[in-house]
Design goal:
heterodimer, A: alpha+beta, Heat Shock Protein 90, 5-stranded antiparallel sheet, 5 strands, 29% strand, globular, B: alpha/beta, Transcription Regulator spoIIAA, 5-stranded mixed sheet, 4 helices, 41% helix
Chain lengths: 143, 117
Amino acid sequence: MKSITKNIRKRFKIKSTTDNLALARNFIKDAALEVGFTEEQAGKIILAADEAVTNVIKHAYKFSKNGEIILSVSFSNNKFSVSISDKGKHFDPKKIKEPNLKKYYKEKRVGGLGIYLMKKLMDEVKYSKSGDRNKVTLIKYLR
Amino acid sequence: MADFNVTKREVGDVSILDVNGFLDAHTAPDLENAFNNLIENKNYKVVINFSGLKYISSAGLGVFMAYVETMRDNGGDIKFSNLKDDVYNVFDLLGFPMLYEFYKSEDEAIAKYNRAK
């Protein structure tokens, strides 16, 4: 018999520096394990969230150290949702093409891999903008 | 804080980089430094031993993409060995097995260089 999982809602605020990536990963990991994902499933969610936070630091805040990033997780009806929001420069993920590794290799291009990974690792990836806040939401269903 | 370190060993004319811990956008510059050091010393035959690596994000994979051509242009390569399944899966998702050689053990990767002589 499967135990009834509890609903959760948590928030975690970090500054836009790469040394906070480890803290962000730990926050996501604890939440994912708490609601019943396996280590392997949690690993995928952690990586997707890391890619999203890295993109915010690189593209939205352009490595300036004082940006604010808010991570929120919620879980209900088997739906685990991680949202990452910032007040940095808006970037349109649709403008970033799916990477072609062979072409990347020839052109020595690095980047765009994170967005592709997020899509592969999660069930849904959504982008939204409200006022001066950009938000990416990563969704994984607990099956 | 993410802990990561990279150390270099030499087996004949092959350089082994042992990567340990967590490789992300914060720690990727340490790996770039290790590659810059290899290029300064003209060490182009490289094996990355992943046995101590617990985590990799695309920032880490980007480092290999940035340096592989220099190694290949100079008669070397970057070959990968001893990857844990979850680390290999990240490489696989991004299509790396199409362009890079992966080995179960470091010895097999070194042997490939030596056979090519």
